[in-house]
Amino acid sequence: MYAGIVGDAMGVPVEFAQRDSYYIDSMIDSGTWEQPKGSWSDDTSFTLPLMENLTDNGDYDQLMQKFENYMFHNEYTPDNLAFGIGNTCAKAVRNWSVNRYPALECGDMSVYANGNGALMRLAPLAIHLVNEPDIEKRLQLEHDYTCLTHRHPRAIVASYIYLEILHELLNGQSLRTVLRNLPERLTDALKDRPEELAELPQYAAMFKSDFSSTLRRNIKSTGYVVDTLLACTWCVLGTTSIDNAIILAVNLGSDTDTVASIVATMASCECLSEQVNDKWKNQLRNQELLKSIIEPFANKEAQHKALLTL
Ligand SMILES: [Mg+2]
């Protein structure tokens, strides 16, 4: 979880910047949002409520309330300031708090609402589901948690791919092996969900055996969920450490914070014995808040795992 937050904070100062108009390999201040060094953004501020909600066994309404507390009351932020919230996420939170939609109907179903705003917050769910052997059960939860903000089948399928990758990595598979096997497993699991199955080809490139040798100029790092997932997978395939994966990601330009955050998370699950750079981690702002949410979540999930292995 900390690696993902480091990726977010490293990417914040250069979010939306053009590729190769800068080079960074450390935590810097100012930039796009004019924030101090170590400021993390909406990616983390939507992830923290999910962790807290999973720790407390909260339901979807309680999670939407936490999202509202972030967006309208600046909770879950480094310094009482919510910044960088994407349109689709903002609309979903308004649907819940102002328009009083049911939680699972807050997400936008439009094909134009296929940003990476659900993907960026869902890693805790992979940890929660690491010992769940039934893919149907995992997909249903991955579906529902995505629908809180994004309901187009393309965004939902992105969550399936990302969280199933994390699931397999956390269970000791290598990323290359996962990418080789996942299309067939998903095709089978989605046979009764034709609208979702029809979106799988959107992601075909990342499952090709030579995807890692795609030229950098052909990798797009925008906030479009397909671009994001491909860019993230490409970064992790192209590096052998968490820190180098983050540096590769933040220098792609465009949606740097989300791409670097997801890359850091994926790389951490691929290199399970490794930790993200300590110096960067110590530079993160509002450490007390991060610790107060991550520690109970980690303890609860660890206990849960221990019970399951008894
Ligand atoms: Mg952000």
Q: Could you describe the 3D structure shown?
A:
This protein has about 300 residues and is mainly α. It has a single domain (about 1-310), classed as ADP-ribosylation/Crystallin J1 (ADP-ribosylglycohydrolase fold, Orthogonal Bundle), CATH 1.10.4080.10. Helices cover about 55% and strands about 0% of the residues. The model has no long low-confidence stretch (mean pLDDT about 95). The chain binds magnesium ion. Magnesium ion binds near residues 43, 84 and 257. Magnesium ion binds near residues 42, 43 and 84. Keywords: Hydrolase, Magnesium, Metal-binding.
How would you briefly describe this protein structure?
With 310 residues, the protein is mainly α.
Spell out the key features of this protein.
310 residues; mainly alpha; binds magnesium ion; metal-binding; Ribosyl_crysJ1; hydrolase activity; magnesium
Bound molecules: magnesium ion
CATH-assigned fold name: ADP-ribosylglycohydrolase fold
Q: How many structural domains does the protein architecture include?
A: 1
Helix content: 40-55%
SSE topology:
Blueprint: H1 2-11, H2 42-55, H3 60-73, H4 87-97, H5 123-128, H6 135-147, H7 153-170, H8 175-189, H9 194-197, H10 225-237, H11 242-250, H12 256-270, H13 278-282, H14 287-309
Helix pairs in contact: 1-11, 1-12, 2-3, 2-14, 3-4, 6-7, 7-8, 10-11, 10-12, 11-12
Bound molecules: magnesium ion (MG).
The site of magnesium ion has 6 residues, from helix 2 and helix 12.
